[in-house]
């Protein structure tokens, strides 16, 4: 048994077009406008998140002046990865995955803000960097379920583990301050390495080393 052809939705042309028989609009009517699809490049997302975490680490390493140097090196590396990504041709997510990414990113920002307020009231702000990293890693794990990308899942798991370790060792103000610097640098490096791997730079360096 053959099924009849699907009926065009309201506002779209029928078999005869906009002006022909079966059309949904009168002659000369313009086609409906469509909004521009949002497509996000995951490389740029990881570069941005990596620089944010390097900046967080800079606050923890600023006592000896090493933070500024670490951040400057990280920015230079991120620019190099971004240029190489543009040269090779970016591969952004499709619209549905980009929407999922925006939703997860917004959820992490809101959760970190709420956690910072609650931990401040409890005089436990030293736990905030580790908790923020757990939330960031959890977002990457959830994103991997929507994209089916195993490297994204392993990146998220690594960030969650690092965040949990930081929460466990952050038992005092001084310890939390030192932990923030090391944690920020570690998270930033992991994110930059992941972005470089997406572009293909890690594989290229591995082949050269052989």
UniProtKB/TrEMBL annotation:
Query: Per UniProt, which keywords does this protein have?
Result: Membrane, Transmembrane, Transmembrane helix
Tell me the domain of life: Bacteria
Give the start-end ranges of region Disordered.
Answer: 1-34
What are the Pro residues biased-composition ranges?
A: 1-12
Task: Give a yes or no for keyword Transmembrane in this entry.
Answer: yes
Residue ranges annotated as compositionally biased, kind Gly residues, are 13-26
- Which parts pass through the membrane? 51-81, 101-120, 126-143, 155-175, 181-201
Name recorded for this polypeptide: Uncharacterized protein
Q: Which organism is it from?
A: Actinomycetospora aeridis
